[in-house]
Amino acid sequence: MKTESTLSSLPRVNAKYSMFNDFLKDGVDDGSKFLFSAKDNLTSKDFETCSGSRILEGYHPVFNATAISKMISAGGKLIGKTNMDEFGFGTFSTNSGFGIPKNPFDLERSCGGSSGGSACAAAVLEDHVSLGVSTGGSICCPASFCGVYGIVPTYGRVSRYGLIDYGNSLDKIGLLSSKASDLAKYLPVIAGKDAMDPTSCVQPELKIEKRRIDNIAIPKEAIEGLSKDVAQTFNNAIETLQGMGIETKMIDMPALKYAMPAYYVLATSEASTNLARYVGMRYGHQDGDLSMKFDEYFTSFRSKYFGDEAKRRILLGTYTRMAGFRDRYYAKALKVRMYVIDAYKQILKDNDAILAPTMPFVAPRFDEISKMTPVESYKADYLTVPANLAGTPHMSVPCGYDPNGMPIGMQFVTDHWHEDLLLTMAEQWDKSFEMRKAEVSI
Amino acid sequence: MDREIVERVARAAHIALTEEEFNKYSKDLSEILDYFKLLDEAPDFDGSGVNPVEVADVLREDESSIRINPDELLKDMNTYENYVRGPRLS
Fold first, then answer.
1. Does ipTM come in above 0.90?
2. What is the pLDDT of residues B39-70, one digit of tens each?
3. Mutate which of A44, A335, A415 to test chain B, going by most B C-beta atoms within 10 A?
4. Fewer CB near the terminus (10 Å): N or C of chain B?
5. Active-site residue flag, A138
6. How far is A136 from chain B, CA to nearest CA, in Å?
């Protein structure tokens, strides 16, 4: 009955929140064990797949991404593809070619990005789990803004087969849900080796042993520049954790400040090569004048259908890889990534996890976002980028609300392959935190 | 940022810029690259690698197989006698 009512409500819910790019218009309850949605950069046989980009409009993949296939094999029914920033390029889901998802706690505010539609679906739909993708913060940011749980496993834990690449060395598939227990329920479903993605083939087994986080390090650098409400809520959350018997201590982590520029160099470098395949042949729009020369033909499609931020990142990534600039940017960024990973490893030798707020502020209003410069918008990711750069598993949990009722999240990071600690923490935290559901009236 | 460099980058990226876009992206790129200068201060850490975790080679002998039927793939493409159609090469 619940399934039936969720399915029948989708058109109305989506009209209000714009969380889907494509969804089941007349789905019926066929006895599936659970309903799920997937970010629109995961290929799906039954839905158009655009990765938030107009250049892919009309693309109908002939196969399901491994993560989607595994959810279906476990008894799940895919009900829609969630709205996102074009190819994952954004922090607020405002860079989508297909409308902007709205925050369920305040329709004038962003869901966060780039998995904004997934966070919105997780917050609004009952008993719902959504597959998200994180390159630099795209699961934890929207989880924080929409007041849900979001987990990003270790790089390589979940096969990327069928994921439309943004940055191959950074992309990770994870989960968003308003139920903490869903993370431990569905991560083992999507994790595992897959011959179709060699980076998934070195992983140790994901063991769910209920190991607990006993001590936490909080980097001083990560609590600078927070809004008053986020700082206050985070302090309260630390006290709650201490009350749960968890030891906390402040540490220095100077490597954090280099993570942002290193991330944006690597992410845009990789994106600019990945997006070279979109030229008006094979996928999406292919209606150009074939009598044109190939350079003109390719350029005409890319100029017409790529959005503003996609063009900016392609130009940036092309520049940082160019002869003469490559060593200063791309080669240096690779070294900085190793430096940041080493910093995490050193701290995580003596501490089970590193903790900080997920985002420095609550979900901003759309009029505030429109005034931000690209650098200001990139800098908003300074708390989520480092763990993404390092490929370390991390999780955002809701930890409070500002005076307007907007959700605030905090983010735990553990060492590579130690997702088990995060899953246990989610369930422990859930018992001591009073979560609020967004008021959904349709 | 020099106009000549932005033009070179746009050409390499196969993106045609209007005059307005040209001015906007020149300014944005300059600001972003200014921010990237922070990388110059980062310690010269010994070690690099293109992946955040170790990735093993999973080489195997080639085997022929058809995982996805080519006819299915061609359905979404602009084709002529089962060839994908593209623009002129010269």
1. yes
2. 999 998 888 789 999 887 778 899 999 989 98
3. A335
4. C
5. yes
6. 13
